[in-house]
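Input sequence (109 aa), recorded before submission:
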Amino acid sequence: MTTQQSRIKGYRLFPSHNKEEHITTRTVGKIFANTCKNANIKKDAAVHSLRYGFAIHLLEIGVDLRYIQELLGHKSSKTTEIYTHVSNKDLSKVKSPLDNLLNKGDTKA
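Predicted structure, token format:
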């Protein structure tokens, strides 16, 4: 769903029995909690965890923060940055430019 689609009158991600209304945030939370329980998920999670996970997964596959900002509907990149964190996995991928120079030197020897 794009930001534009979410603003279309009558478009509901979680429609209620009454098509003119959406289900409440509380109901979504209850459905999510029951689903986690049925799936035997022990870790504390809330519906917002899905949004956070979406942002993190996009970052991990290299999607630019500005695109994530647009997808999440944030006006400020500072708000989107709240969703970011540096994981040890990602840190281990960072290489020094000097490593490339040293490796090139080794192949010539």
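Checked by second reader. The chain has a mean pLDDT of 79.
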